[in-house]
Design a protein that fits this description.
The complex is a heterodimer. By secondary structure, chain A is an alpha/beta fold. Chain A has seven helices and seven strands; from the N terminus they run βαββαβαβαβαααβ. In chain A, α1 (16-27) links the parallel β1 (7-11) and β2. By secondary structure, chain B is of the alpha/beta class. Chain B has a single domain, classed as 3-Layer(aba) Sandwich (Rossmann fold). Classes of the chains: A alpha/beta, B alpha/beta. The A-B interface holds A 140-141, 144-148, 193, 199-202, 204, 209, 212-213, 216, 254-263 and B 128-129, 132-135, 180-181, 183-186, 189-190, 193-194, 197, 235-242, 245-246.
């Protein structure tokens, strides 16, 4: 029970990765708020045990209201996980301005807004040598590009830079800021990438596609939401008290290798 | 007359660098373990010596200094052994680390005292393999990481009179690359697949690297030191998924 007595808020908390994080935080003894657009989230399934807050992270009024509720009910926030995110599977020529703006509104502005309004509550948690932990979601796509994901890649690069900037600004206040950069994780977003109308799938056999993707990974598998939750849990805990400002790539070794030519 | 030393000058990238630096007006001293090749440019000097041997490095530098001020050292000599750690022998270690690490060190140590007095530039040929691994190239990958690390140290320790930078080539079509393709089950298919992974639509040529050496050596790069430049046709900007998969 690494998180006993801590309060956490997870955006995208009813999505594939968000649910795993909420479940892990609950198992570790935290009070957990799952913020998402709907109770079912992107999985469109019954919600988990975490307390639900309906939240569009790109809406400033809703973010402010969510943090007010956490303040009134818990009085502080030890852990903020910015896991809400969307992905547009297009090149920039095919991406409309509306899609571009929506990508940045959720992935970047959302991270900005929830962090901005969570910081006063996180300062209350960061007392007496105990640190608070803010965890953003970058991506390995913030370092190297997948084809047909231009806006997504750009938003994740922005999150990486914002993570370092926030770590510099708020470290002196006892608030650690890190980003997790997942590779291929088995989530609704990944399934959409395989089957979507854009660059994903497009009539090919999904099983073959998935195996081909697994085969490129040194670990010969893609990750599960629980793999991400394991690292989120560590970064959220007091064991990670000296970890800040870093981009934690968790991708089964995918980005450790040069292009895997078919030799 | 400014003298440029190019190690491993007999073939491939080193040969292209030699030609380019001659065109840029340098007196070029090329060196290699072999005797001077028939196709080595007539206007360039050749020293047969191994950079892995400290005495060889001194011999090369001595020959160069008799011709003039050594303004440029290009550490291009390198070898690769296609093995994992468990398959690598002590002899493999001595070969790869000797040439790729100790050779670069030997040459830098030989030229730096002179360069610090009169100013100069060192360009080391590293590799994209320094920061992301090619499979079954364990010692080579590690040796190239050493090159980029040493590049930064020399820049820090021996500025402002000496600038030192590294180039990280991607897949350049040389004899060495052909050796790698020859190991493929289907060398032609392997080449086609490799090509598809390059955003610029072709694999590299030795001249692509020579162009960057020329620029880094020039006054255009007067404020560039301790840096590593990737010249790989965009390959490492892309995720390693199979091209055309989606």
């Amino acid at each position: 029970m690494k998180l006993q007595g801590k309060t956490a808020l997870v955006t995208g908390g009813r999505g594939g990765i968000g649910r795993a994080i909420c479940a892990r935080f609950l198992a570790e003894g935290a009070r957990v708020y799952a913020a998402d657009l709907s109770e079912g989230g992107s999985l469109d399934a019954p919600g988990g045990a975490a307390e639900f807050i309906r939240l569009d992270v790109s809406n400033e009024d809703e973010v402010r209201a969510a943090m007010t509720r956490v303040s009134e009910e818990a009085g502080k926030l030890d852990i903020l996980v910015n896991a809400a995110g969307i992905e547009i599977e297009k090149t920039i020529e095919d991406t409309t301005l509306e899609e571009w703006n929506r990508s940045f509104a959720v992935n970047v502005t959302g991270t900005f807004l929830t962090s901005k309004y969570a910081l006063p509550l996180m300062r209350k948690a960061a007392q007496n040598g105990i640190t608070a932990s803010l965890i953003n979601f970058g991506s390995y796509d913030g370092f190297i590009a997948d084809p047909g994901l231009a806006a997504y890649c750009a938003t994740k690069g922005a999150v990486h830079a914002l993570t370092r900037a926030m770590a510099c600004d708020h470290g002196p206040e006892g608030i650690r800021v890190n980003a997790i950069c997942p590779g291929y994780i088995d989530t609704p977003m990944l399934q959409s990438f395989f089957t979507g109308d854009g660059s994903g799938g497009g009539g090919k056999d999904i099983g073959e596609l998935q195996q081909a993707v697994r085969d490129v990974h040194p670990m010969r598998a893609y990750g599960t939401p629980d793999d991400i939750a394991n690292l989120v849990n560590w970064l959220a805990s007091d064991e990670a008290r000296y970890a800040s400002g870093q981009l934690w790539v968790l991708d089964g070794g995918l980005s450790a290798q040069v292009q895997q030519m078919k030799l | 007359m400014s003298v440029a030393i190019v190690t491993g000058a007999g073939r491939g990238i080193g040969h292209a660098i030699t030609l380019r630096l001659m065109a840029d007006g340098y007196t070029v001293v090329g060196c290699g373990r072999s005797a001077r090749g028939a196709d080595f440019p007539a206007g360039a000097h050749w020293v047969q010596a191994s950079v892995a041997d400290p005495a060889g490095a001194v011999k090369i530098n001595t020959a160069a200094t008799t011709l003039g001020k050594v303004a440029l050292l290009v550490n291009n000599a390198g070898v690769q052994v296609e093995k994992t750690v468990t398959d690598s022998t002590d002899a493999d270690w001595d070969l790869v680390i000797g040439a790729n690490c100790r050779g670069v060190f030997n040459m830098c140590r030989a030229v730096l005292p002179g360069m610090e007095k009169t100013g100069g530039v060192i360009v080391n040929i590293g590799s994209i393999s320094a920061s992301a691994a090619d499979p079954s190239m364990a010692l080579y990958n590690a040796s190239k990481a050493f090159v980029h690390g040493l590049t930064r140290s020399i820049a820090v320790d021996h500025g402002p009179t000496v600038r030192c930078n590294a180039i990280a080539p991607g897949w350049i079509l040389t004899d060495m690359a052909d050796d790698a393709f020859a190991l493929a089950d289907d060398p032609q298919a392997a080449k086609a697949d490799a090509l598809a992974r390059h955003p610029v639509g072709r694999m590299g040529a030795p001249d692509d690297i020579a162009n960057m050496v020329s620029w880094l050596a020039s006054d255009q790069a007067a404020y560039v030191s301790g840096a590593s430049f990737t010249v790989d046709g965009g390959m490492t900007a892309a995720s390693p998924l199979n091209p055309g998969l989606f």
